[in-house]
Amino acid sequence: VLPVHLHSSDKMEFRKPPDGGWGWVIVVVSFFTQFLCYGSPLAVGVLYLEWLDAFGEGKGKTAWVGSLANGIGLLASPVCSICVSSFGARPVAIFSGFMVAGGLMMSSFAPNIYFLYISYGIVVGLGCGLLYTATVTITCHYFDKRRGLALGLISTGSSVGLFIYAALQRELIDLYGLDGCLLIVGALSLNILACGSLMRPLESFDSPPPEKTCVDKVPDQFFVYHEKEKTVEENISILEKGYVDEKCANNIPDYKQDTILNKNVLSSINVNEKDTYKKKVVEQTNFCKQLAKRKWQLYLNYWEETVVLFKNKVFSALFVAILLFDIGGFPPSLLMEDVARSANINEDDYHMPLISIIGIMTAVGKLTLGILADFKWVNTLYLYVTTLLMTGVALFAIPFAKSYLTLAMLSGILGFLTGNWSIFPYVTTKTVGIEKLTHAYGILMFFAGLGNSLGPPIVGWFYDWTQEYDTAFYFSGFCVLLGGFLLLLAALPCWNACTTQSSKLPPNTYSYKVASRA
């Protein structure tokens, strides 16, 4: 199934974003949604240490649990985008709340690490991915001029969740054990259902369309073949007034109706009625064939639009940068506690968990960067590139940190820079346009999920191989720096000379003009 609604903007029109009003309610519930769903997966570093001791597996193998939980939802972003476009943010959020809560509770009964791959990694991760797409999409619909601020506010929910859940899960483990901790955290996640129920879609403010029959509900974009306009209209009329009325009015199942017609058609109708019945069958068959052809045309259009997106140099560089950033930038939030334990840092020196520091500084970074993105003199693409380059430098510095103070400072810096997630949807919107946001964002989040899934296991394998983290973080820093430089090259002003050819590009393509201040 492909995101049909993405290609039918002429039929589904949203009201102008109000930049306020009920939009602030959307911001609040989206904040708490991300707080509740991402709190445990982002603070999985606390659980990671417990799973290492409980199952006795290697660091790389155990790291797959946390990396799947944070990556699988992003890997499934195209599917998540289709779900949100097809069903709306509210139903998806409510359904996903059950997934997250159920996955966390199931994890409390895990007999081995492989069970956690499914319950915690896939079920919880997929639920988080659906919730993330729903919150970002509906927020972008409600905000335009203040979109950067709104996205920054809702994205701080996951960071505050990381800060609180890091300490909460540690306390719950001390009081009730690992299993009890997961049960309680799963129960808390059920509050997502209340948040999701308030995600009122923007288009619902308009008067509801008139009730349609099942044939009229076929979107107009299906009718792209106009060889026989009258024949198509006759098909619809026949199906409406004939076959559908017979089936709906009489409430006779298809198989029973076919049996009755086969037995009685020759004896109960005259010659003219026989011809009418045969004509209806032929017309219905032709209509179904045309509908199948038009469905196939939609598939082709979807892939054509995907190819058009990748013809945009900045978009192509953006997907490489996000992949490399998540391979290198995500492991610290999962493994920093184990880095401190491997450095033989005394637990008495701990004034605050390193994961909590990352969480609170990520919240500060998201809010700060989101506010900066709303200033006209700030180029959001250059701002995003700057955070990538600084993250790479900070990762290179981790092997030189041998005390709690230096690790805490680096954790704070990395947390702040990781707040660039709040401006990533903003950069994507400016690159491809709001009309293609869901399509493009789903593709980019797929590669982000791939990086999230691969990053921690790679760092864990480096440790299992070398028995130290230095080489792993050199590799991580190199990946992030490489992605930042590639994106910077794609965004250089010298490429603006090529924008004169933009008129030759297919319609609905967008190029990020670096000279303009986003």
TrEMBL record:
<feature type="transmembrane region" description="Helical">
    <location>
        <begin position="314"/>
        <end position="330"/>
    </location>
</feature>
<keyword id="KW-1133">Transmembrane helix</keyword>
<protein>
    <recommendedName>
        <fullName>Monocarboxylate transporter 9</fullName>
    </recommendedName>
</protein>
<keyword id="KW-0812">Transmembrane</keyword>
<dbReference type="GO" id="GO:0008028">
    <property type="term" value="F:monocarboxylic acid transmembrane transporter activity"/>
</dbReference>
<feature type="transmembrane region" description="Helical">
    <location>
        <begin position="475"/>
        <end position="495"/>
    </location>
</feature>
<keyword id="KW-0472">Membrane</keyword>
<dbReference type="Pfam" id="PF07690">
    <property type="entry name" value="MFS_1"/>
</dbReference>
<comment type="similarity">
    <text>Belongs to the major facilitator superfamily. Monocarboxylate porter (TC 2.A.1.13) family.</text>
</comment>
<feature type="transmembrane region" description="Helical">
    <location>
        <begin position="350"/>
        <end position="369"/>
    </location>
</feature>
<feature type="transmembrane region" description="Helical">
    <location>
        <begin position="64"/>
        <end position="85"/>
    </location>
</feature>
<feature type="transmembrane region" description="Helical">
    <location>
        <begin position="381"/>
        <end position="401"/>
    </location>
</feature>
<feature type="transmembrane region" description="Helical">
    <location>
        <begin position="21"/>
        <end position="44"/>
    </location>
</feature>
<dbReference type="InterPro" id="IPR036259">
    <property type="entry name" value="MFS_trans_sf"/>
</dbReference>
<feature type="transmembrane region" description="Helical">
    <location>
        <begin position="440"/>
        <end position="463"/>
    </location>
</feature>
<comment type="function">
    <text>Extracellular pH-and Na(+)-sensitive low-affinity creatine transporter. Also functions as a pH-independent carnitine efflux transporter.</text>
</comment>
<feature type="transmembrane region" description="Helical">
    <location>
        <begin position="148"/>
        <end position="167"/>
    </location>
</feature>
<feature type="transmembrane region" description="Helical">
    <location>
        <begin position="116"/>
        <end position="136"/>
    </location>
</feature>
<keyword id="KW-1003">Cell membrane</keyword>
<dbReference type="InterPro" id="IPR011701">
    <property type="entry name" value="MFS"/>
</dbReference>
<feature type="transmembrane region" description="Helical">
    <location>
        <begin position="173"/>
        <end position="194"/>
    </location>
</feature>
<dbReference type="GO" id="GO:0005886">
    <property type="term" value="C:plasma membrane"/>
</dbReference>
<feature type="transmembrane region" description="Helical">
    <location>
        <begin position="92"/>
        <end position="110"/>
    </location>
</feature>
<dbReference type="InterPro" id="IPR050327">
    <property type="entry name" value="Proton-linked_MCT"/>
</dbReference>
<feature type="transmembrane region" description="Helical">
    <location>
        <begin position="407"/>
        <end position="428"/>
    </location>
</feature>
<dbReference type="InterPro" id="IPR030767">
    <property type="entry name" value="MCT9"/>
</dbReference>
